[in-house]
Amino acid sequence: MKRVFPILAILTAGLLSYGLYGALIQAPTEQTMGEVQRIFYYHVPSAWTAFCLFFVNLAASIAYLVRRNPKADALALASAEVGVVFCTVVLVTGPIWARPVWGIWWTWDLRLTLTLVLWLIYVSYLMLRRFSSSGQTPLMAAVLAVLGALDVPLVYFSIWFFRTQHPQPVVGGGGSIDPRMLHVLLVNWLAFMCFGTLVCWSRYRLEMVRRQVEETQALESLLAAGGSR
Amino acid sequence: MTDTPIIAVTDLVKQFGRFAALRGVSASFDAGRLYAILGDNGAGKTTLLRALAGLTPATRGSLAMLGTTNLREVCGQMGYMAHPSLLYDEMSGLENLRYFARLYGIRDDARCEAVIRSVNLDPSLARPVGQYSQGMRQRISLARALLNDPKILLLDEPFSNVDVRSAREMAGLLAKLRDGGKTILVVTHQAGLLRGVADEFVWMEAGRIVKRTRDWEPTEAM
Amino acid sequence: MSRTAGVTRATLVKDLRLEWRSKDAINSMLFFALLVVVIFSFSFDPTAEESRRIAGGLVWVAFLFAAVVALNQTWARELRNQVLDAYRVSPAPAHSLFLAKVVGNFIFVSVLEALMTPLFVVFYNLRAIGPAYQLLVVAALGTWALVVNGTFFAAMSLRTRSREIMLPLLLFPITIPALLAMVEATSSILTGEFSAKFWIVLLAVYDVVFTTGCVLFFEIVLHGE
C-alpha cells in the first residue's frame, strides 16, 4: 500500500498537467461562449468527483453503522471534507462561467442547485462532527450521513420539477459534445478523481494518526495516578 | 441464592476524551445484599453506577447483570435513582409515578399508590413534585425506582441534603428491601447511615476499587 | 406492539398535560408567531396579485422559523432533572418516545400555524384561486415533514455544544426538498396557475422516507451515551 501512494501522486501530477494543457490549448474553442467555456473542464469534473466522494462517505457511514469500525468513520470524515472542497469549486466556477455568458450570476439550474444543497448537507455534517461531544460523534455523524443520502434523490426530483415549471438557463450546456472536448473532459475527470483519491487518502491517514495519538494520551492518563491494581 | 454473582464487572474502563473516569474496575456483587460504595468526588462512583444502569456504554471491559451482557434485556428488573430527581416538577407524585409505571407496562394505579406509601408519602398529595422538600423529593424518587419491583437497585446519593430522620427512615427501608431479596448498591458520602445496614463497604479511588470491608468505622479516612 | 402504543399515548398525554400546565411556553410561542407575521408583513408589502405569488414562500418560511423555536423547547423539559435518564433505563422502546414527541410537536406547530394563517390572509389579502382544500393537505404533510426531522435533529443536538443553533443547521439543508414542495404547492394553489399534485406526492414520499428513517435511527440517538 505504501508504494502505491507515490506512484499515484506522480500519475496524478501527470494527468493534471495533461488535463490543463488539454483544457487550455488542445480543446477547440466553443462556438457560442468563447474561451470562458474552458472553465467547463474544471466545473464538471469537480462535480462528478464530489458526487463520488459523497458516495464514499455514504458507504463508509453505513459500514460504520454496521460494524462500528473506527477506520470506516475516519474514511467518512476524510471523504466528506474533500468532497466539500470539490463542491465549493463547482459552486465558485459555476457563477464565474455563468456571468460572462448569460449575464447572471446564478441560475436554479439542476446540477448547480443540487450541488448547492449537497454542499449545505455536508457542511452541516462537518459542523455536527465539530460540535458534538467526542463519545458518540461517529455514530451521530453516520446517522446524519445516511439521512442526507436519502434526501438526495428527493432533492433531485424537487429541483427537476421546479425547473420544468420555471425554466431557466442551463449552466454546463446540454446537447451533444464535440469528441475532442469530450476527450479533454474525461482526461480531466480522471485527473480530478486521482487527485481526490490522493487527498482523501492523505486526510484519512492523518486522521488515523491523530486518533492514535489521542489513544496513547488516553492510555497514559489511564495508567497514571497509582501503580498496578 | 445461587453462587453466580448477580452483577459481574470485568476490567471496566470508561473514558471521556482524555479523562479516565473508570480505570479498570473488576468486581462481583452477590444477590440479596446491600453494598455501600464510598469514595471522594471524582473517584468514579457515579460513573460506575451509570454504567451498571446502562446509561453509559463502557469504553472497554465487560459488564454482566443478571447473567447477561445485554443490559437492555434486563433493564425491566433494575431500578435507578440519581442525584437529580428524574421526575417532572410540574406533576404530582402520583401523576409522575403513573407515567413511569406505564413505561414498565404497569397500568395499575394501586401499585403506584402502594409504592408511594411504602416510602412514607401520601399518594393523594396533589402538590407538584417541584414544590416538595428535599427529603420528600428523594423519597418519591426512590418510589419511582421501586415501581417495577426491581431485583437490583442502583442508588446514587439517596441521602444527600436529606434531614437525619428521613435519612434514617430511608436506610431502614433499604434494609427491609434487602431482607426481601433485593440487591442494592448505594453510592453515598454518608457512610455512617449505612453502618449496621450495609453488608459490605466498597471503597473507590481514582477510578478503581481499592478495598472492600465488612465494617465501617467513623475513624476511617473517608 | 400494544405496549408501544400504550407508551406512546402515555408520553403524548403527559407532554400535553405538562405543556398545558406551564403555559409560558405556549404563550411566548404564540406571541413569537404573531411577531413573525407582522415583521414579514412590514418587509414584504406587495400588491394583491404579486402577493399571491410569493405568499407561499413567505408563509412557510415564517412557519419554519416559528417551528424551530418551538422544536428547541421539545427536549428541554426532558433535560431538567435528567428525566430522560428515567426513560432510558426503562424497557420502554425508543421509537415510542420519538413518535410521542413528534405528534406532540405536530399538534403544537399546527396550533401556531392556525394562528398565523388568518393573519397572513388579512395582511396580504390572500384568496385561493385553485382548490383550497388542497391547502390543508399541503399544510398537514408539510408540517409533518418539518416536525419529524425537527424533533429528530433536536434530539441529536442535545449532545452538542451550541445546542440551539445546531438544530437549524442540521434541519434546514435536509428539509430543502420538502420546503420547495410546500412553497411551490402553496403558490400553485393560491395562483391557480399549476397543479400542486406532483408536489403533494413528493411531500408524501418525503414524509414516508424520513419518518421511517428517523424512527429507525432514534434508538441510536437516544441510547448513544
Mean pLDDT of chain C: 88
Order of helix and strand elements from N to C terminus of chain A: HHHHHH
Largest sheet of chain A: none
Largest β-sheet summary of chain C: none
What is the β-strand count of chain A?
Answer: 0
Quick structural gist:
The complex is a heterotrimer of chains A (229), B (222) and C (225). Chain A has helices spanning 4-26, 40-67, 70-102, 110-131, 137-165, 179-223. Chain A is mostly helical.
Description:
The complex is a heterotrimer of chains A (229), B (222) and C (225). Helices cover 79% and strands 0% of the residues of chain A. Chain A has 229 residues and is mainly alpha-helical. Chain A has one domain (4-27, 38-170, 183-209). The mean pLDDT of chain A is 86. With 222 residues, chain B is an alpha/beta fold. Chain B has one domain (7-213): Rossmann fold (3-Layer(aba) Sandwich). In chain B, the strands form two sheets. Chain B has a six-stranded mixed β-sheet, with helices on both faces. A three-stranded antiparallel β-sheet of chain B has the order 2-1-4, with helices on one face. With 225 residues, chain C is mainly alpha-helical. Chain C contains nine helices and no strands. Chain C is globular and about 55 Å long. The interface between A and C is medium-sized, with 30 and 32 residues.
Descriptive labels:
heterotrimer; B: 222 residues; alpha/beta; Rossmann fold; six-stranded mixed sheet; three-stranded antiparallel sheet; 6 helices; globular; C: 225 residues; mainly alpha; 84% helix
Q: Any chance you could write out the topology, listing elements then pairs?
A:
The complex is a heterotrimer of chains A (229), B (222) and C (225).
Chain A: H1 4-26, H2 40-67, H3 70-102, H4 110-131, H5 137-165, H6 179-223
Chain B: E1 7-16, E2 19-29, E3 34-38, H1 45-53, E4 60-65, H2 71-74, E5 78-81, H3 93-103, H4 109-118, H5 134-146, E6 152-156, H6 164-179, E7 183-187, E8 200-205, E9 208-213
Parallel strand pairs in B: 3-7, 3-8, 5-6, 6-7
Antiparallel strand pairs in B: 1-2, 1-4, 8-9
Helix pairs in contact in B: 3-4, 4-5
Chain C: H1 2-21, H2 24-43, H3 48-74, H4 76-79, H5 83-89, H6 94-124, H7 133-157, H8 163-191, H9 197-223
